[in-house]
Amino acid sequence: MSDINIFGHQALFEHVYKSAPIGIALVTIDGNWISVNPAACKMFGLTEDELMAQPATDYIYSDCINNKDKLFQSFNETSSNIAVEKQFVHRDGRGIWASMHVSLVRDEKDQTPLFFISQIVDITNSKVAEQRLQESIERYTSLKKYNHDAIISFNLEGGIINGNQMAEQLTGFKIPELIGTRISNLIGERHLARILSPMADYVAVEKGINVIHHKDGHTVEVLATLAPIVIHNKNVGFYIIAKDMTEQKRLIIEKEAAEKTNKAKSEFLAMMSHEIRTPMNGVIGMTDLILETDLDEEQRDYVQIIKKSGTTLLNIINDILDFSKIESGRTELVEETFNLRTALSETLNLILPKALEKNIEVTTSVASDVPSQVYGDVTKLRQVLMNLLSNAIKFTPNGAVSIAVQCVENQGESVLIKFSVMDTGIGVSRDKVAQLFEPFYQVDHYMTRQVEGTGLGLAICKKLVKLMGGDIWYEKNQNQPGSVFAFTVDFSFKSNDRNQQENGAVHENHSSGNDLKILIAEDNEVNQLVLKKMIEKLGYNSTAVKNGLEAVEAFERYSYDIVFMDIQMPFMDGTEAVRLIKESASSEKQPFIVAVTAHAIKGDREKYLGMGMDEYVSKPVSMNIISGIIDKFLAERDMSQA
Question: 3-state DSSP call for residue 561?
Fold first, then answer.
């Protein structure tokens, strides 16, 4: 007798059935419950009655329960049980996975099917772990497959394990061709040896890998990254991630070429500024001097035409230079506290003569909530207003031009001001509005236009307004024919008493300065004559020299009060001459040096003042500017002597 018979089959089965840690369910051939053990009830969080109230076929191989022949055929002699995995819902609502091993119990005599036994094992934890592993694999596969960089894995012997699609594009090899070959075929033996070295510095190694060898023999420039493959805390290989730098290199080269071109353009503009402004200084300066002489009416008209033409040409040059400075990003805000109403009044005074010539009425309207003192760039504001007002007068044959100023938004520390320039002129057709603020665009066709200009004015205005934190746009005049150009500027409030002084008119009282000693250093004879004559008209004498070397020698012989120093001169330029003059003069006898240059590039004033010069003017120079400089020197001298 075997040992199992000591305990009895029935007692043994009952003990296993009730105490086993796995669920056991007995189901009839027809799919009805016979019994279910406690472990199965616990697994699903149900009582025996609650579990047996559910369909018994859910807990056996239920796919074939309605086709008995097919079901019994599944349990043949070679397959005594069938394993399936199914998902169930626990009583508390969470999902659980169960592995069921279903066996068919037959009669020992005639093998007639009697009932099913289903052994149920909770595999939720392992299933979740399996799903997470699968998700991780899929994420890794997606990252590798759809990465824009080539990814190649290789083992510690240097043999390639795998690669992604980008690796095929980068190397020219298909992945099956790469697998098993040496990574050194792509990166070189020297780099592989460094990677596999026990003391490898991966950062230094990857910096050295800058090309990948292509299948057809050429090399591809790359940016490489190395990453070790670590499994169970053991390094088993490496990933090399290679970014194709061909396009980036091309872009870098193009960027450098564009920067060089932009620099060359800036240098060309600076040179053209000098070359054009120098003769223009002679033209406009001499016309100013001629107008001071006795002329008959016809001669005066001719000279006025020359001066107007010269001024127009100068305005065109200024527009091109301004637009170039803004485009290159070298235009910066020079902010100060100023009186908004005073700035508006001064701007209107400048355009009133043109309006009076055409008998155009000019009116202004400033809302009461617009603050008087604001902090911003008054020069750029005037430039925008002057351009819009000049355009309004230019394109208004008769009628009126008005400017309205109102406060759009006041946030305590800043205020958004809207300026609207309205006219009753010819207006702008709807199809031309979109191009209004484009550079070099003019509403009038260039072959038939009746007004002069570069077509840069509104483009410059747009960029300046954007720089000041605002926006600019065109509106059709609703009440009458004409146009409305409106723009906003974001001003802040900042106390700066030093900058609140208002610019007064140029003074021409030089009675206390007739003893002034003035030196002119200028290599252009026409400009030398113009400057000398202007100073004479203001009541002073001056000495002229042709270059910086002569200026230094002249100052050594005679201590001058004011030196008008041209910057570009032969033998010795103005900056070197200023340095030597400053060094030779005592602290009590330092001259007032004025940089006179044909350049009109942003930053020149700050640059020359930083070199020790006291004032800066750009050509063409007017008599008012010279008068203002002399007045400034006299005022500073009077203050120092007081």
Answer: coil
- Which residues are within 8 A (CB) of 378 and not within 5 positions of it... i.e. 6 or more apart? 336, 338, 343
Q: Is the pLDDT of residue 446 over 80?
A: no
Q: Provide the token pair at 533.
A: 């004559």
State the Cα–Cα distance between residues 20 and 39, nearest whole angstrom: 7
Question: Using an 8 Å Cβ cutoff, are 581 and 559 in contact?
Answer: no
pLDDT of amino acid 507:
34
Task: Round to whole Å and give the CA distance between 249 and 221.
Answer: 9
**pLDDT 10s digits, 199-244:** 878 888 888 898 999 999 899 989 888 988 888 888 889 989 888 8
CB 211 within 8 A of CB 154: no
Treating both helix axes as pointing N-terminal to C-terminal, what angle do 623-641 and 525-537 enclose, rounded to 10 degrees?
60
Q: Token pair of 338, please? A: 């100023």
Rounded to whole angstroms, the Cα distance separating 521 from 593 reads: 11
Contact 452, 312 (CB under 8 A): yes
This model's pTM is above 0.85: no
For 487, list phi and psi in degrees, rounded to 5: -150, 155
Decide if pLDDT at 558 tops 80. Answer: yes
- Chain CA centroid to CA 501, Å: 37
Helix (H, G, I), strand (E, B) or coil at 199: coil
Q: Contacts for 572-581 with beta carbons within 8 Å, 24 or more apart?
A: 572/547, 572/548, 573/548, 574/521, 574/548, 575/608, 575/611, 576/548, 577/521, 577/548, 577/549, 577/551, 577/552, 578/611, 578/612, 578/613, 579/611, 579/612, 580/552, 581/551, 581/552, 581/555
CA 465 – CA 254 distance, rounded (Å): 30
